[in-house]
Here is the input.
Amino acid sequence: MKKLSVAGSALVAITACSCSVTLVTFTLGGDASIDTMEGQPDFSGDASIDTMGGGQPDGRPSDAAMATPYKGTIAQTLLAAFGGTPYCNYTITLKQLEIDLEILSSGQVTTGRVQDLNVEGTDATCPDGPIPPTIANYTLTSATPASGGTMLAFQGAPGNAPTVSLSALLTPSGTAYTVILSFHRIDQSPPLDWSVIVTLPLAPQ
Here is the structure.
């Protein structure tokens, strides 16, 4: 420890650096002493930043925390006919159809999935029966801004049968959303392909 004497007015000052701490003390009409304490400051404790519930360091919630789940369901769609000469006449109905989307407050869609039960039908005179009922799953692959809304593209699961493409148009509707789903069978050429278009309201969950 080093000490120096200096005449001056009453004043106390403390300075610090990474390598030493200097204490300067002045007294009225007297001397001042300067104590220099050699050594390193103690930073042995742990440091942490409270992000307030998993958001940003300044307390703002992250994008994931701001996403709101939306859901739309319908028991079944209307019958859609396909086939015909030289084939049988068939119908397709999508049952237990549901869509789930995660949407940010900005309107950006972050995740999405669609599921339905494909149910084909035909008349009793057809020698070639329909495909047995199968569950189809689709996962969101892209969300692109479009006029008045957002275009959504979905990828069907590898096990889906038949193979069907799915796209959708999402539009805001007050505090909720409306989605138009467009299904199209792509593993058969006309007249054995089919299309189903259905509009669903989405409600926040």
